[in-house]
Specification:
alpha/beta, 7 helices, 8-stranded mixed β-sheet, AB_hydrolase_sf, 8 strands, AB hydrolase-1 domain-containing protein, AB_hydrolase_1, 34% helix, signal
Length: 231
């Protein structure tokens, strides 16, 4: 009987893992077609950080730098992959830093990279990757809050800002074009409370979805395209 229960538990566990894998694949979080050979190491005051680079070497369009969420799980680190591939296909050069590639730059609930260090780190990445032009900065969850605070500190370095369900921040006086993407049923960062931190931004574009949870949704692609188009 014990063996039978153990067998059933193993079958159930395998089913859960399979369902989770299929879900992550469908949401674009694990895109095996994205070439990881383009990884380079960028120097920061905290040591080297791995940055995946996609798109042409030379582009007339601004560099896009996208920040991941807090977790070191692979599907979180790769959650921008699907959109990054599409952007690269449209001629953008896209940078995807992996802040967990260096323990000193890794975000954590406790004892992770500080807000001040994160801002200095981003400033050094921008200086190395796009020294002559402001960038488009994107971030999801922890990366969204970090991106917003950086844009507030360094408005001269950020041309446009894209935030997906950003973690909590105090209201920020952001004067640049801002695209805010959020699912109303997000169970990690609450939609209605979170939006209040940005509703006074004069150049805010808000795109919400009724359902989608705490994810980068495929339906965000169209509003992102429109937002990035030259005005």
């Amino acid at each position: 009987m014990i063996a039978l229960h153990g067998f059933r538990a193993a079958v159930i566990a395998a089913g859960v893992i399979l369902c989770l894998s299929l879900t992550l694949s469908a949401m674009g979080g694990s895109n095996s077609s994205l070439d990881r050979a383009g990884t380079r190491k960028c120097s920061t005051h905290l040591g080297e950080v791995e940055v995946q680079i996609l798109g042409p070497e030379e582009s007339e369009k601004p560099l896009i730098l996208a920040l991941h969420g807090m977790s070191s799980a692979d599907f979180i680190l790769r959650e921008w992959d699907a959109i990054a591939s599409q952007l690269a296909g449209q001629g953008y050069r896209v940078a995807l830093p992996n802040l967990h590639s260096n323990p000193k730059t890794a975000p954590k609930m406790l004892g992770g990279v500080t807000e001040t260090d994160a801002a200095q780190l981003l400033q050094m990445l921008v200086s190395e990757l796009s020294p002559l032009r402001p960038i488009v900065l994107m971030g999801k969850s922890w990366g969204g809050a970090t991106a917003a605070k950086f844009a507030h500190r360094h408005p001269d370095l950020v041309e446009k800002l894209v935030l997906v369900c950003p973690a909590s921040t105090p209201p920020l006086d952001l004067r640049l074009p801002l695209l805010l993407l959020w699912a109303e049923d997000d169970w990690v960062t609450w939609f209605r409370q979170g939006v209040r931190a940005y509703e006074e931004c004069p150049q805010l574009t808000l795109q919400s979805s009724k359902k989608g949870g705490h994810r980068i949704l495929p339906e965000y692609w169209q509003p992102l395209q429109s937002f990035l188009a030259p005005q």
